[in-house]
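yo

u said u wanted the structure for the complex thing, so here. seqs first:
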Amino acid sequence: MKINLRINGQSRQFLIEPNEYLLDVLRKNDYLSVRRGCDNTSCGVCTVLIDNKPVPSCSVLAARCENKEITTVEGIEKEVEKLAKYFGELGADQCGYCNPSMALTVYSLKLENKNANIEEVKEYLVGNLCRCTGYVAQHEAIMKYLGDES
Amino acid sequence: MIFMEVKELIRAIDAEAAYTLLNEFKGSKVMAGGAWMKLSVKSVDKLILLDDLNLDYIKEENEYLEIGAMTSLRTMEMHPTIKSLNSGILAKAIKSIMGVQVRNVATIGGSVMGRFAFSDILGALLVLDCRLYFHELHEISLFDFLQMPKVPRDILLSIKIKKSSGKGYFHKVSKTHLDFSLLNIAITKNELFKIAIGSRPQTATLAISTANFLNSQSVINEAIIKKAVEIACDEIKVSTNLRASKEYREVLLKTYLTRGLLEVIK
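structre next:
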């Protein structure tokens, strides 16, 4: 079957199987910043935004995304640059595998509640697992990013 | 890679079409949010999608809140009226489920129709007097639905919750935020007490005798609560699974039921 998606502002058409998940379709078509992790909605590394809401792409059938706006980390480049700066300054970055999904979730939080406090940040990011950092530096970097008006 | 075989995907044009497809073909299934389905279903002949049925809504009526079956858990948890119902227990129960990503996908219809034993929502809905509205079966209380021996092959259209401003308590005990409950407790105190215990590990149920005992008392004090907790321990059966033992669940039940009752009588 054919589906039409808007990915990072561009219209794309793909030929898919009815049981293909968005994660598989994106990776097959070279959107490799969308990572495969647990494949069962637990880890959050496959997060993309659908109509600006974070979802686990491993559990959304691609066929259900017809005409939806999909955002991967490449679609929010300027925001990612800002966030990456704070991640670097605060040593919040280690292996980097979870960074794209983390950036998308944080961006979505900023759209929803840019004045989020640290508890709200922790709560919003509960579905993004990071196996390396222990989260403290990430939370500090995210608070700085949210406070950055530039 | 986790794989679910789907032979045919059908976007139902209305509830009647979805109902007919579901009942004409044995190997057909309805997908609501779909997050859990991937983990529990290996193969489907006809997968029926309800995305075009306009069931994603929350309507406020004078006494009730009507929620379409395809409304996401995240939409519900952010709704101001849901946040305020009986100390916000439903929003609290929803928030305790996985992360924002999953709650953006999971729907209230899927959460109800799954009758999941580990569900954190069913207990909160039980104590909020939730009623279900189906295409064919029409209206049924959530409590009666949970007592049915099998899930009916019907299309859940919406749920209704009575608006109430009494007190409420919800608590989920789990090893981590992302883990299933070892036990969960929901209590409301409007004119009457209602108590539900879930993840026992069986599906949530109402503690009817315990609530009747409390509702027959003119004064609720610590001694009455102690007696009520004893009744609940006799009435509500808990058992052992991989997550926790029967004995541990009994301790959890006593502890959190006591705390919950003290909270709602404050």
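Chain A has two domains: 2-72, 75-147. DSSP finds five helices and five strands in chain A.
cya
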